[in-house]
Design brief:
The complex is a heterodimer of chains A (343) and B (238).
Chain A lengths: L5 H21 L4 H12 L12 H5 L8 H4 L21 H9 L1 H7 L8 H5 L16 H9 L3 H9 L1 H7 L10 H5 L19 H9 L2 H7 L7 H4 L2 H7 L8 H5 L19 H6 L7 H4 L13 H36 L6
Helix pairs in contact in A: 8-9, 9-10
Chain B lengths: L2 H10 L1 E3 L3 H25 L4 H9 L2 H29 L1 H10 L3 H14 L14 H25 L1 H5 L6 H30 L9 H4 L1 E3 H7 L1 H15 L1
Antiparallel strand pairs in B: 1-2
Helix pairs in contact in B: 2-3, 2-4, 2-9, 4-5, 7-9, 11-12
Classes of the chains: A mainly alpha (343), B mainly alpha (238).
Amino acid sequence: MKTKHLPGLALVSLIGLTAFFSIGSAVGVNQEESDDICSRCHDNDLDQSAPQVRYGAINASAHIGLSCSDCHVGVEANHGATVPAVDCSACHKSNAEAFQLGIHWKLLARGSQAAPDCVDCHGSHDIGQLSQGVKSIHDLAILDTCGQCHEKQKNEFIQSSHGAAFEDLAKRDFAPVCTSCHNEHAIFDAKAPGSPVSASKMPDTCGGCHEDPAFAEALSIPGNRQSSYEDTIHGLRNRFGKENVATCEDCHGYHLVLPQADQRSLISETNIIGTCGKCHEGANANLTASKVHIEATVSSSPGVFVVRWFYILFIAVLAIGFVIHIAFDVIALKRRREGRNHE
Amino acid sequence: MNEERVRQAFEQGYAYRMSMIMRIQHVLFALCLSVLAVSGLALMFHDTMFGAFLINLEGGFEGRGTIHRGAAIVLIALSIFHIGYLLFTRTGRQELSERMLRAKDFGDFLEAVRYNAGRAESPPLIGKFGFGQKVHFLLAGIIVISMMVSGFILWFPTAAMSFLPQWAMRVVLVVHGYEGLIAFIVLVLWHLYDIHLSRKNFPMSEVWLSGLMPLEKVKRYHPGEYQKILKIVGDDDK
């Protein structure tokens, strides 16, 4: 063989071998091998026109062990420019059903470009990972994830007491994140009756944390906030679906919840007359001095406690007295029948 | 009390105890209180099955409120009329005087207890209204007035809280609810028992409808009043 023929021979052999192995591997493909097929375009640095997936990412993700075709069902090698979208509900049925109840889905179904789908919040190949730039629904990252679209709400939250508690490592476990109040998948419009942040459900949502006395003590804030609200005229009206009544967010705000001492708070000294005045036209400082949360305990509202107990005891005495009165009447009737009485 | 009526009734074997104007006021009063009790207690016990059922029946939260305040307005009008009647008419002042608690009533009460226990020979000479009945009237007056005052405070919270002390609103709510409950219990366990189930009146005293009480009953339970009636009709015979 002449040496000048060697490069040509090598090239032909290479092509031949490649053809042989390509054709050979097209028959009876197993998963590992199919992943390899995908990776030929999608995990190399040769063809930059194909979206690049780092396979290391999948194996570090929550989807470890899955192959490309588990999600990209029916997509063959040498597919066209567009492929069908992945249907996460094939495995994640209950989450998908919950998502379809909410407003994000409603907007998506109408063709909104702004609304998020699964990937926008969860990421795709790097799903479940927690590192910068990765889309995640982990508590530590969700503010940023929701904040991609809801920037104003995110900024308000960060400035609020809830945000401060989140930043404080000692209090982080107590702090809410977006999904604590808005649900994870079934996210409703705030006015929708099913929404946990609708006026009628707000006491339950806030009360989920703020009712528990142990929670309150750990954070040095007042507890029993739900029951102390529900027993009042505000709570009663809200319970019966009246719209023009104060609920948690009317007085405390929702994303920008602030302590009373903070001048920006809706219930600060400077603002409270305006806050109460939204419903109580003409409210003055005398009105705003009264309590909104009422606990009939000696420490909190001794007047209510004493008066209530007075009435309970008085009613008990009265009831017993009347029963005695009735008993005497019946006894006298019996005695008269038996001829043992004067009459 | 119209002497002619007293005489007429006596001839029929009855004592004329309750004038027409009093009977009308009484029926209106009973109606108002019933509506107020049912609508008020429904709200106070809204988280019970019974309360929720009543609120539903009364047109929901709004309807219940309207019914309650409507009946309250009627009661206020009735009360103004009643107070005017008691103070500014001759018969009214007479009625008022008959219902005032006097020292004699306390003595009568003790005497009645002794007699019923077999420790006294004869029963006390109870007049038109016995001790219990006079206490009834007094309680009714006190409760109606305090319910009205507390009710108004609850009805106009913004105006009330513009000058009342800060604890007023929540204490007034307790007062209004529990005193209403007292009224209800007094009415059911005392008044309704007395007029329907007591041995004196079973199955029902007719005084509230006809104004008349049989003379034997008057003789037995209101001997002082019986003597007075005899005097009135007896005078005529002279």
